[in-house]
């Protein structure tokens, strides 16, 4: 019987070296897109996909994430006394979005190892994995798209998107037999290949629906690229044992753990913001007065 997906692992214990010095003492997942931290968008996506329980795998310097999803009595009291009821409501909602528990990955041994840290919490159920610095802005919540495929095929599903050939070396790359629109049964999975080695341009983008049989593979997994225990390597082993699928997620993706990705997301979310969008658009246009593409429109 196919079981529904109620739980998720959020691996948040990386060092965020691409965003130093900002990430020296603050988590990249707490960077704001307009007024909400990136990780809140990802929690909201999970909730919209039917996830009720989340385990966040954190590490040193990540305490701000726990505080963000906790109740802040003092702040609520201040807002109440000032009559700022709308803000109060918004702040309160954050602490009740989902059941969130935390555990620490004591050493950053890799994404695969971070997922293994969630084993006890997950038990014997299918579960989602979502990277807390990847935002996917689509017609349907990204994890919900994968849950749909999982329920149909009753097997692990990895979210992918096509990337330009010169970018394949930043990602895990999947390839296999096409069995439906945007859907493949995986035959090969390679972590950070060179453009020459890459079997396709389908990049693994930080959203997964997995089954608990991945844990015993992760337990045995030797370090791979970068000396880290890679989830991609364990998924390759799993794909040798049972069908594992890749599904092309619909939506605009922003890697906010990358400086340029973060800037792009900020601009897009700023433009979409109902209160600020129009003024922000005007400001951006004013930066390029002579540009025939944007000027005067
Ligand atoms: P990244 O490859 O983005 O690594 O990890 P990172 O350390 O976060 O960032 P950079 O590349 O140094 O800038 C992918 C995801 O896996 C988590 C990260 O938090 C991120 O969400 N991760 C990685 C862990 O939880 N533990 C690890 O040991 C490694």
Explain this structure:
The longest helix has 14 residues, at 259-272. This protein has one domain: Spore Coat Polysaccharide Biosynthesis Protein SpsA, Chain A (Alpha-Beta Complex), CATH 3.90.550.10. The mean pLDDT is 95. With 297 residues, it is α/β, with parallel strands linked by helices. The chain is built from eleven helices and 13 strands. Uridine 5'-triphosphate binds at residues 11-19, 57, 105, 108-111, 113-114, 131-133, 257. Uridine 5'-triphosphate is lined by residues 11-19, 57, 105, 108-111, 113-114, 131-133, 257.
Relevant terms:
binds uridine 5'-triphosphate; alpha/beta; 11 helices; Spore Coat Polysaccharide Biosynthesis Protein SpsA, Chain A; 5-stranded mixed β-barrel; 34% helix; 297 residues; two-stranded antiparallel sheet; globular
